[in-house]
Specification:
It is found in: Cytoplasm, Perinuclear region; Golgi apparatus. By secondary structure, this protein is mainly beta. The protein is built from six helices and 170 strands. The protein is extended, with a radius of gyration of 60 Å.
Length: 1842
């Protein structure tokens, strides 16, 4: 019967599941069984009910457990149990919920921890003390050393100690020449971004021999010169002296009494309190304590002292006999006795401040006046001061000294603040005594917070960073002697208000807390969290972590050393100390992540004996043992033990029923199983004697014999030999032998084919034979090649030759095997083997061994440091400096420990008061504190292997110009004024030269050079225009430039000539306006009604010396108005009136016209008058005619007609092109008509009309008005009459009529908008055909040309006009033709521009076409684009911009197109030529009498008439007018006449300042010069320069100066600190700009080529700190995750990608502002290999077998084979992967499953043989993983024999 056939079995085991927090998790397994099993799920030995977040459902034989919305607490193991009536089985599934645990794991992995802590040490005074420790942390932690809670820099000078680090994580603190104050507790604090660690050590400084004698000195001479203070105290009271001393290094303090050194003892306490006072406390003063106490302080800088005289006053009532000091031995009896004044006086006994009570310890007696205290069994703690006190306060004092083992006892109590260190020191009589420290009865052990140290006879205990819980009784025990001290830790006011412990996630604790409400007064700087194991008996609290500002942390199970329940507490810390520890309310169970170190082993145990199973783990966890799926409990039969990482199970008295039982151990994340086999009680028939491992495994070299043997219990029993399952027979070279109980097989000469597994009697006894090649040996190498010496960073190659090409060698260094790495390459080519170190390091020095089997070859390698080279500077340096500057010469060496010497002119330099030699890392510096001329010379920095020269030249400082502060000034003056240029120089004896326009000036009558101490002046008494120039004051080292501009005085009009100010003229007359100016070179401007008048055909502007004339040749009505002649400083105005001339009849010859008519004819009389509005009367025989039915009188603008009508005349037929008027027969008529259109403005337009009679009288009219304009030209030639308009203006557009009385022809002048053009004409027949032509070529309709016919109107429209569309267009019919000309012209003319010097000017025109081309011309010279000129085209606009205008740029500029031209005047004004204001002020005084002379006075000075002041008197009114007002005109004006005065005050205010040109923001590189400037509306304005709200002043790196209206700020050498917002504040206005450092990449990203699972680190350094940056991968932004870290340190930006994979390859980019850097990451896949191959297995039929192997890459894919067939997953075969492990699980093995199984991983394969045994009557016994089938009776027989 197949008992296993229907039992439940797992067809597919549940796999580990990893999900994200908040998602759903599905655990599944596949279970078979008949009948169908019942399946349940358990967690923590509790069944899971399928409700709420848990759901269970079945899908065939697949069973699922679904957990909804998982949290961290859901992580853990889940047990799936299946059971039916035949059997049961179970399996565990692991669920891991990812959240913040990975971050905590990373923090725990990378936070600092001490591998080796610093050791306490004891040194003699003056010796050096060294503390060393070894740390680990990633990134490398920052180290801070402290002494007694204070940083070393705060108490020591930098030369007294040195902090260093070495490779391998070693850190060192060295204190030089220790002094007494150096003793104390030193702590090393290590910190990185993941946490911190702390370790402490004690330094004990011995005073040394003679120290006491040195301290004993006579202070009489000192106290005589020092003021001694007086202090009095009553006997029995305490005296306390405090002395406050500061200094660096920290002073050493010595207290003396009357010249004798005071040491700490029973009654003398010496200490430094928390306020920094050095204190001496004299307890229970006696009369012998009277004297002078001196506090002497000294350090290396000097010494000082302070003295006080103590007077001890006697009490009012004294003892008759006081107590006497005692000295007794330990365990003796001590008796103290005194005598009081009277019998009735009671007394009280005290031991210091503790009142004593009578009892077994103390006996108290009284008889008479005597009082006695007896101390029994006296001990060390009884050592002290005893007092006998009377009620009135009188005291008697005695010191009891207890002699014994303990020479120096503990103080009775020690008080410290929370967070301080508590130190205890005991001295015993002998060294190496067995001592113990206790606190509250518990023996102390050394931890990171408890320091225990012994120095010979001295023993020290230190509690580091004490907490209130550390309070208690501290006891020191040595033998039977002990001494105790009460430790009291006072709490700080800093507290933690609330605390919460949550366990939402499995195997983790979330701790949260809230600071106390009053913590604002003393806010915490951090928190300290500690843990304690519960239930183990340990009371030790261990610090978990520290945090700065977080108020919650998560503690993971992997951060604890062993599985246990833990409680936590927290305290807050700040600079004042630590708060009380606050304990969290409950405990939490935490389990570290463990791995199997030594798995379970199958056990073969005789029945009745005990079976033992054990497993070794990597961490201490609590596990559960199972027997066939049933959890075991501790009882009489099962014993379970756990000792940290070792777990064991003992089953007492195993029974036959236990045979084949499965023993399983399950812990957090761990599962392992083994089998229990029972040896039977029946004796087998035949038994093989057991063989040793050596006998069963044979390794034979080729050619050697092979002998295999076994021994039987029955000599007659036959056996058969098999090799790899095939029976062997005796053949040549192979012999099978049998001798008694021995059975042998002998192979004469081994070959490789003889390797295999040999079995005796069907695998009862088996042998493994491996035939191997002969051993590999090394070829001889010369002795010199075995010793290699290379320079650091050079390549090192060690090579040798082996005897066989297939020989395998291993390389070792100092005993450790060497593996291939980035720096190490191992190569094998044929018989050559080599090891190459690409870049040797000092640490590579050592012994290298190449091992091939038993052959060894050793190499000695010495790696030398490279020669010290000078990295910077590379070339010799030449320096020029001035006296007395500080000079630093610096060299950077290639090594930090390199030695360099300094030489000057060949002589080696030593340090002196003025020369300092500095060593800072790799830098060697020579500093000359105050340079002198004699310090000039050649300096050499010599590093033995390299040197660099510094050529130093020191000269006297240059002569500087101190005032004015700016380097340039601009001065404007008028001629005839005195001019003084002055400079203040730095040295009065300096030589100064003056230059004018580059030439040195010489003193003459009109140019004086003056020297006045430090002042140098150039004086021109009376300036002229020729004195305008650039003047320079040059000292040789500095210069000052003056731009002097001497301007002419204002131009004035001298007198008007001929023309009055009011002029009346008739239209058509000539007008001449002229005036005379004060200077012939004065420029005047003529204006009409405020607009400038230009030269034209009708206007002429004439200059002749001082004469200025304007002529209008033919006046029109429009010429009337106000004309002004303007010379900037003055003007003259003319008022012109133009009148119409008298009405005249035009064309009247004076001869009467005679008309002869036929009765019935119409009489038409017509005349033309000179004005259209003239009134005309018609007279007949002197009688005025009036209009009637018969008489018609008409008036048409310029013409009037008289007509008498009798009858009508019929119309004849019209010509091809018709006119709107009909002509009478016999009268002139138009033959043709045309309509002309022009685009925009053109140079000219001509209209042409053809009449039927040559003598026809023609009149031209526009808009009904007779034409009479200057640009109208009328001509006649035969029958052709033309009207030409030249030049054509925009005002010329409109309707034109050619009138011949009897007929008229119309013309239309159109100015077209840009882009299109329409030409129109009219034919006499609506259906007439016409043809349009351009320049004689026919035009066809298209997108560009549109031809329309509407009635008699014909039109041609041209779209999108271009320059090439200009030309002659005509419209032709069969009989006639009309034409028009199209021209491209300017639609907007150029206008005059006035601009200021140094600014920009833009001239602009507008064309009618977008594509029109123009040329810009100045004074006949074509202008081309350059830095001075910018030419722009935008649509129809064309512009010319002139940059940085100069006066020479003024003039006439013209713009010319193909058909047109326009021009305008550019005027450039200088700043100094502009007056401050153009306003005028007038004062008037009216007197009672006319013609009385008076005087005008301003500020006491009489005024005279000038161009500035004009005075007039008209009758009784006197007036004063002040022109061109300036601020200087402010004052009091007085008018005086005879004895009368009247006054008024004039206040002239300058106009508010405006900003013409604003500041422009700038970016700068380091060290560059930045200049910002702005321009104001006035030059005489004081401004303030402000940076970020703070006013800045000029210094050597910052220049502030002005040039005219411009204000400049110049930064000479820009640094980061110069960045900011700069503002120029001019009072009424201000302007700002930003100056910021240009961001550049200093260190770009570097390409990385790494393997999978390594970390990729990218570093980019930019030039500016605290600039945010972004990281991108293949264009997508990178955000921080659990595997990607982004951080910034100053200017450096870091990107860390942990455990990269191949898909992480790509382009990495860093971007900060406008700077970026790119690198490429290339990730190579891990090489795939088989780390642990498959193993052969033999199993029973129907059992379950697991074939497993381990690969190097957990992500690689593999393929399983049986023979040559690929194995696919099925119910029979299950394929699983767990990390690097690959498993093939075969369920219910059958005989057909036997064979060779192999696995392929990339190019690697490995195979194993599976042997399946059928079930028979033999019992299966497991020995070391193999099975033997032994007959039962053989085993029984063996047992009997034993």
């Amino acid at each position: 019967m197949d008992v296993f056939g229907g039992a439940p079995r797992f067809l597919a085991y549940p796999r580990p599941v990893i999900v994200q927090s908040g998602t759903d998790a599905v655990l599944k397994c596949q279970i078979g069984g008949d009948p169908r099993p019942a399946v349940i799920w358990e967690r923590n030995n509790e069944k899971i009910d399928p409700q709420g977040r848990y759901r269970v459902f079945e899908d065939g034989n697949v069973y699922n457990l679904i957990i909804s919305a998982v949290t961290i607490e859901d992580s853990g193991q889940y047990i799936c149990k299946a059971k039916n009536c035949i059997g049961e089985t179970y399996a565990a599934a692991t669920l891991k919920v990812e959240g913040e645990a990975q971050e905590m794991e990373l923090r725990e992995e990378n936070k600092p921890r001490f591998l080796i802590k610093p050791l306490s040490t004891r040194v003699g005074r003056g010796e050096d003390a060294v503390f060393s420790c070894k740390l680990w942390g990633n990134p490398k932690p920052e180290i801070v050393w402290e002494k007694d809670g204070r940083k070393l820099n705060d108490i020591f000078e930098t030369t007294h100690f040195n902090v260093g680090c070495q490779d391998g994580g070693w850190f060192q603190l060295k204190i030089f020449k220790t002094r007494a104050p150096d003793g104390g507790v030193y702590t090393c604090k290590a910190r990185n971004e993941f946490g911190e660690a702390l370790a402490g050590a004690v330094l004990l400084v011995d005073a040394g021999p003679g120290h006491e004698e040195e301290g004993n000195r006579n202070d009489e001479t000192i106290t005589k010169s020092t003021k001694v203070k007086m202090f009095a105290v009553t006997e029995g009271k305490h005296a306390k002296f405090r002395c406050f001393v500061t200094g660096k290094p920290k002073p050493e303090i010595i207290w003396r009494k009357d010249g004798r050194l005071i040491l700490s003892g029973r009654r003398y306490l010496l200490y430094e309190d928390r306020e920094g006072y050095f204190t001496l406390k004299v307890l229970y003063c006696k009369q012998k304590d009277n004297g002078v106490y001196v506090c002497a302080a000294s350090n290396t800088a000097g010494q000082t002292l302070s003295a006080v005289h103590l007077s001890v006053k006697e009490p009012p009532v004294r003892f008759k006999q006081p107590l006497i000091d005692l000295e007794v031995w330990e365990r003796d009896l001590a008796v103290l006795e005194c005598e009081v004044p009277e019998d009735s006086v009671p007394i009280t006994w005290y031991l210091e401040d503790r009142r004593l009570q009578p009892g077994a310890k103390y006996g108290m007696e009284e008889w008479g006046t005597k009082r006695r205290l007896t101390i029994r069994d006296i001990g060390i703690d009884d050592d002290g001061i005893y007092l006998c006190e009377m009620p009135d306060g009188g005291r008697s004092i005695a010191e009891v000294a207890v002699k014994g083992t303990i020479m120096r006892k503990l103080p009775r109590k020690v008080d410290v603040l929370e967070g301080e260190n508590a130190a205890f020191c005991v001295e015993v009589e002998k060294e190496e005594m067995d001592i113990h420290w206790y606190k509250d009865g518990i023996e102390l052990r050394e931890t990171h917070q408890t320091i225990l140290k012994s120095f010979g006879r001295t023993h020290i205990l230190v509690f580091v960073n004490t907490m209130p819980e550390d309070s208690g009784l501290v006891t020191f025990l040595v033998g039977r002697s002990k001494t105790s001290s009460q430790l009291r830790v006072k709490e700080c006011i800093l507290t933690v208000h609330q605390k919460v412990l949550e366990t939402k996630r499995a195997n983790a604790a979330l701790l949260s807390w809230v600071p106390a409400p009053d913590s604002r007064k003393n806010p915490p700087s951090g928190y300290v969290l500690e843990r304690q194991e519960v239930g183990t008996g340990s009371q030790e609290w261990v610090q978990c972590l520290t945090t700065d500002s977080a108020t919650s942390v998560e503690i993971l199970g992997d951060s604890v050393p062993c599985e246990a329940d833990y409680r936590f507490r927290i305290c807050s810390v700040n600079k004042y100390g630590k708060s009380n520890n606050v304990e969290f309310p409950k405990t939490v169970h935490l389990v570290p992540v463990a791995r199997i170190q030594a798995p379970l082993q199958d056990a073969l145990v005789p029945e009745g004996q005990d079976a033992a199973f054990s497993i070794e783990l990597s961490a201490s966890v609590i596990g559960t043992w199972f027997l066939n799926g049933t959890q075991l409990q501790e009882d009489e039969r099962y014993s379970m033990r756990r000792s940290r990482t070792h777990q064991s199970l003992r089953i007492r008295g195993v029974r036959d029923t236990d045979n084949g039982a499965e023993i399983t151990f399950i812990a957090y994340g761990i599962r392992d199983s083994a089998a229990l086999y029972i040896q039977g009680t029946y004796s087998p028939l035949v038994k093989f004697s057991p063989l040793s491992e050596m006998d069963r495994n044979k390794f034979v070299e080729v050619g050697n014999p092979i002998v295999l043997y076994c021994e039987l219990s029955d000599p007659t029993a036959p056996v058969h030999w098999y090799k790899n399952g095939v029976e062997l027979q005796t053949i040549e070279g192979l012999h099978i032998q049998s001798e008694g109980t021995m059975r042998r097989i002998v192979i004469q000469s081994a070959e490789f084919s003889h390797s295999g597994v040999y079995c005796c009697d069907d695998d009862d006894v088996h042998f493994t034979v491996e035939v191997k090649a002969p051993p590999v040996t090394f070829a001889d190498i010369q002795e010199k090649d075995l010793f290699q010496s290379v320079v650091e960073q050079e390549q090192l190659t060690l090579s040798c030759e082996v005897s066989r090409a297939d020989g395998v060698v291993h390389w070792y260094k100092d005993g450790a095997e060497i593996q291939t790495s980035n720096n190490v390459t191992l190569q094998a080519e044929s018989i050559k083997r080599s090891l190459t170190i690409n870049s040797a390091r000092i640490s590579d020095t050592g012994t290298y061994t190449c091992r091939a089997g038993d052959s060894i070859l050793s190499f000695k390698v010495n790696v030398r440091e490279p020669p010290v080279m000078i990295v910077y500077p590379k070339e010799d340096v030449h320096l020029d400096r001035h006296v007395p500057e500080e000079i630093i010469l610096s060299c950077e060496l290639s090594r930090v420990n390199g030695v360099a010497s300094w030489f000057k002119d060949g002589q080696k330099l030593q340090e002196s008061e003025n020369i300092k030699l500095k060593v800072e890392g790799p830098y060697r510096r020579l500093k000359i504190l105050s340079s002198r001329v004699e310090d000039s010379g050649e300096y050499v920095c010599d590093a033995n292997d390299d040197s660099i020269f510094f050529h130093l030249s020191i000269t006297e400082p240059p002569v500087q110009i101190l005032s004015p502060s700016q380097s340039q000034m601009e001065l404007c003056q008028q001629t005839s004024e005195r001019m003084v240029l002055s400079c203040e120089i730095s040295r009065p004896n300096a030589v100064v030269r003056w230059y004018r326009d580059g030439l040195e000036v010489e003193e003459n009558e009109n140019l004086l050079l003056e020297v006045d101490g430090v002042y140098r002046r150039l004086i021109i008494p009376e300036t002229t225009v020729k004195d305008s120039a650039e003047y320079v004051c040059d000292t040789g080292d500095d210069s000052m430039t003056y731009f002097v501009n001497i301007a002419e005085p204002p131009v004035r009009f001298i007198r008007p000539r001929k023309t009055a100010s009011k002029v009346e003229k008739m239209r058509g007359e000539t007008l001449i306006l002229d005036c005379e100016v004060s200077r012939s070179n004065a420029k005047v401007t003529w204006k009409k009604n405020g607009e400038e008048v230009e030269d034209s055909r009708n206007i002429t502007i004439f200059d002749d010396g001082v004469l200025r004339q304007l002529t209008i040749h033919s006046l029109t009505m429009e010429d009337a108005g106000e004309y002004t002649c303007d010379v900037v400083d003055d003007n003259m105005t003319f008022y012109i009136t133009v009148k119409e001339p008298p009405v005249q009849i035009i064309g009247n010859s004076g001869i009467p016209e005679h008309h002869i008519l036929v009765t019935g004819d119409d009489l038409v009389l017509e005349c033309e008058v000179s004005r259209p509005n003239a009134i005309v009367n018609w007279l007949q025989n002197g009688k005025v005619l009036t209009a009637s039915d018969r008489v018609k009188i008409d008036s048409h603008k310029y013409s009037t007609s008289f007509k008498t009508q009798r009858e009508h005349i019929s119309r004849p037929s019209s010509p091809p092109f018709s006119s709107p008027l009909w002509s009478a027969q016999g009268n002139a008529s138009f033959v043709a008509s045309m309509s002309t259109a022009v685009t925009k403005v053109r140079r000219s337009a001509t209209m042409c009309a053809f009449v039927s009679k040559e003598q026809a009288k023609v009149r031209w009219l526009k808009d009904g008005q007779l034409l009479n304009e200057n640009n109208i030209h009328i001509s006649s030639e035969g029958n052709t009459h033309k009207l030409t308009i030249n030049p054509l203006r925009l005002s010329d557009s409109g309707d034109y009529v050619c009138d011949i009385n009897t007929d008229e022809m119309s013309f239309n002048v159109v100015f077209l908008k840009a882009g299109s053009l329409t030409l129109q004409c009219e034919v006499n027949k609506p259906k007439a055909d016409v043809q349009w032509l351009k320049d004689g070529k026919e035009i066809s309709p298209s997108r560009k040309y549109t031809i329309r016919a509407q009635g008699r109107e014909r039109s041609l429209s041209i779209q999108q006009l271009l320059e090439e569309d200009a030309g002659e267009y005509s419209c032709e019919s069969t009989d006639d033709k009309t034409s028009a000309t199209v021209t491209v012209l300017f639609s907007k003319k150029m206008t005059p521009v006035v601009a200021e010097e140094y600014s920009e000017a833009t001239l602009e025109v507008e064309l009618n076409l977008d594509s029109g081309e123009v040329q810009w011309v100045r004074q006949g010279v074509l202008i081309h684009p350059c830095a001075k000129y910018s030419l722009k085209n935008k649509g129809q606009k064309r512009s010319l911009t002139i940059h940085k205008l100069a006066v020479s740029d003024r003039g006439t500029y013209s713009c010319e197109s193909l058909h047109d031209r326009t021009q305008a005047q550019l005027t450039v004004q200088r700043e100094c030529a502009r007056p401050l204001t153009m306003e005028t002020a007038s004062f008037e005084v009216e007197l009672s009498h006319p013609n009385v002379p008076g005087t005008w006075v301003r500020n006491g000075i009489q005024l005279k008439p000038t161009n500035h002041f004009r005075m007039s008197a008209k009758g009784q009114v006197h007036s004063l007018t002040i022109y061109n007002l300036s601020v200087e005109d402010t004052g009091t004006f007085v008018f005086c006449v005879e004895n009368l005065k009247t006054s008024a005050r004039l206040v002239v205010k300058e106009p508010p300042v405006t900003i013409f040109r604003k500041l422009q923001s700038q970016k700068f590189p380091d060290g560059s010069v930045v200049s910002i400037e702005c321009e104001l509306s006035r030059h005489n304005i004081d401004v303030k320069w402000i940076k970020d709200g703070v006013e800045v002043k000029p210094n050597k790196d910052l220049r502030i100066y002005a040039m005219g209206r411009k204000r400049f700020l110049q930064i000479m050498r820009c640094h980061v600190t110069d960045s900011g917002l700069y503002t120029c504040d001019a009072g009424d206005a201000s302007t700002s700009c930003t100056v910021e450092r240009e961001l550049v990449v200093l260190q770009g990203l570097e390409d990385l080529d790494i393997q999978e699972d390594q970390n990729a680190v990218f570093v980019c350094e930019v030039s500016v700190e605290d600039v945010p940056g972004e990281w991108f991968k293949n264009g997508e932004q990178i955000n921080p995750t659990s595997t990607i870290k982004i951080r910034q340190e100053g200017t450096k930006h870091f990107l860390l990608m942990c455990n990269v994979r191949a898909e992480d390859s790509g382009e990495i980019m860093f971007v900060a502002r406008n700077a970026e850097s790119v690198a490429h990451l290339k990730v190579k896949e891990l090489p795939v290999s088989i780390v642990k191959p498959l193993q052969d297995k033999t199993v029973l039929e129907k059992s379950r077998v697991v074939l497993d192997c381990a690969v190097s890459n957990p992500r690689c894919s593999i393929r399983w084979y049986k023979g040559s067939n690929v194995i696919l997953p099925s119910e029979h075969f299950e394929i699983s992967s767990e990390g690097c492990y690959r498993k093939l699980i075969i369920q219910q093995v059958v005989l057909d499953d036997e064979g060779q199984y192999s696995v392929q991983v990339g190019e690697y394969t490995c195979s194993a043989t599976l042997t399946v045994e059928g079930k028979n009557l033999f019992y299966s016994v497991g020995l070391y993983g193999t099975f033997s089938t032994l007959p039962l009776f053989v085993i029984y027989f063996k047992l009997i024999r034993k």
